[in-house]
Amino acid sequence: MIKHEIIFWGLFLVFNYLQFLPNYIINFHNSSFLPYLDKLKAKKAGFFDSTNMDFFRYLIDVSFLILILKFRLFDLPIHVVSAYYLFLFLFNFYHNVFLTIYQVYPSLYNDRSLIKTGLAILWRESIVKTVFSFFAGIAVLSLIYYGFSEFLVYTIQFKPTIFDIVTGSLFILISLYVIYRFYVRLGNKILYAEKRMRFVIGFARVIYNIKLSKQLFRKELIFKKFKGDKLRSCSKFELKKHPNLFFLFIESYGSILLHHPKMRDRYKDIYGVYESSLKNLGWHMVSNLSEAPSTSAFSWLCYSTFLYGYRISQHAHYERFLRKPLFYNSDNLMRILKNQGYTTYFLNPIQPNPRIKIDYTYLTPFYSIDQWILYDDLNYTGDRYGFGDFPPDQFSINRGREIVEKFPGPYAFMFLTKNSHSPFSFPLELAEDWRSLNKSHGRSDYGGGFLSQPSIANYLNAIQYQLDFISDFIKNAGNSDDIYIVIGDHQPPVLNDSNKYGLNTPVHIITQNASFLGGFEDYGFRDSPFDNNLKPIRHEAMYSIILRELMKNFGTGYDKLPEYEPQGLQV
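and the corresponding structure tokens:
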């Protein structure tokens, strides 16, 4: 074999593998460097797909362009081919980052505002690091473009040999077989599993992204035409008793804890302490699993789905609903409670980012909030944690209730916890007195940046901290009539594999009123999340479950209970 053949085919592989290197780097913590090891471990053969995220993969369209130039089939402009290669590299980077973190197929129409928000967070974390990363990225992209262009120039300098023709023809035949077997016969279905494919059509990814964006845009046009009669009107009833209600959404509290071989035993111990510490003081609890509308991100979609009883699974649609008075003037749990004389509170302790605009003009009516409890309201001077620069959850929730209880009740209190947000930044232990946390020890951001690689150990410790501070909060200040709805918003990002562990999150209903919990058994709730007889529900079902049980136990002045909506509102 002559020298230029070795160089050409070696670089042919290098530039194919380079496209998939970012995906391997993102997933290296749970991937093997060498290909096919997952198949060997499972004693299965497989040439075309693999669950292992190594980078030994091929872009069919780029490879075809290289071979067209090599075999002189067409006269293609080198700089156009190089620009296409660079475009696919950038697109694949974006594609794999979103697919890994959010575990849903990327759609630029849906992702555009998230990219902007992510950049704003990075800028706030470190201006120097962000600027350096930007120029380093430009340098890397320039180097890739120049290197690939030089490779193409080198390619056309030598006429193809018999070895080139045989090897190239074999690659083309394999690629055509892949196109027929997967892309043609399975159609769009292959795109949902293509992360595993070793032969990928880069342009198909782009087209499918555009197709999804177009579908989201068309659906938004339908939402624009929403009629009020398709939505619920506020339920007519009165409450003869007004227990305070707490909607506590635990960030990243997922059912992976029940099933992951490295998490289940530890979680069982953590949960056992949490459960017994409450039951010993007269608190009763029932649990279930609930399917989130998002795999491992988009907390706002998850708690909005819960409150409205309507599945909101796309950020683009959420933004549309946020500005649609016909939608946000319909029934949601906070609005119903407000109509029953409750004061509604939303605790959001993140220190504001000046580059991320939060428009409370829309958020306040959307969630039907009487008063927001924000970072400045907490008067916090202690150490801050995580990518959002927030106080410890133990401090935030106790200070929040201290503010709330200055005013007459009843009240409904909502809080999305922060210390279990990836990469899991939290105090090392619970404080005996939450007020002692309001003193700085000169440190902040214990968990690193929000793109830092999370670990199973940190995740488990963060979940323990969450359950510890919630049980401590209930024990120390809970009234006997209080009702606590504790639910995971979604599974943890990166650590979760939605194909294995799905979308479910634990949900617990906690109160000293044992009779109130009796009806929840009809919806699949049991005494423990480890019970094999659980009948998992969906986040959007919780709206009708909670409303029905409140009316059944405390309501008067209604003809019949509203319908149970296991799939949420259908419009």
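(Above: one complete record from the training split.) The first strand starts at residue 58 and ends at 59.
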